Amino acid sequence: MGEQKGAILIIVVCLVIFGLCVGFATGVIQPLLSQIGTGMSNMVSNVFKAIPTAGK
After folding, report:
1. What is the secondary structure of 1-56 as a DSSP string?
2. pLDDT computed for residue 56 by the predictor
3. Is residue 8 assigned to a domain?
4. Is residue 4 included in any domain, yes or no?
5. 37 in a domain, yes or no?
6. Nearest C-alpha neighbor of 19 from the set 9, 10, 8, 28
7. Cα(5)–Cα(48) distance, integer angstroms
8. Predicted confidence pLDDT, tens digits, the chain (56 residues)
9. Environment class of residue 29 by beta-carbon count within 10 Å: exposed (0-12), middle (13-18) or buried (19+)?
10. Does 30 map to a domain?
C-alpha cells in the first residue's frame, strides 16, 4: 500500500510541476504575479498611511 501512495504522490507532483511550466511558458502566471505584487504593495502603503508617525 505504501508503494502505491508513493507512486500517486510522485504523479501528482509531476503534474503540478508540468502545469506550472506550461503556465509560465504560455504567459498565464506572470500577469497574476504582477497583479498580486501590485495588491500587496497597495496594502502595505495603506497600512503605513494609517500610522500617524509614519513618514516623519
Report:
1. -HHHHHHHHHHHHHHHHHHHHHHHHHTSHHHHHHHHHHHHHHHHHHHHHHSTTTT-
2. 56
3. no
4. no
5. yes
6. 28
7. 48
8. 789 999 999 999 999 999 999 999 999 888 999 999 999 999 999 888 888 875 55
9. middle
10. yes
How far apart are alpha carbons 56 and 38 in whole angstroms? Answer: 25
Site of grid cell 505504501: 2
Position 54 scores a pLDDT of 58
Indicate the number of domains in the chain. Answer: 1
**Can you give the residue range of the structural domain that contains 31?**
20-48
Look at the block and give the residue holding cell 501528482: 12
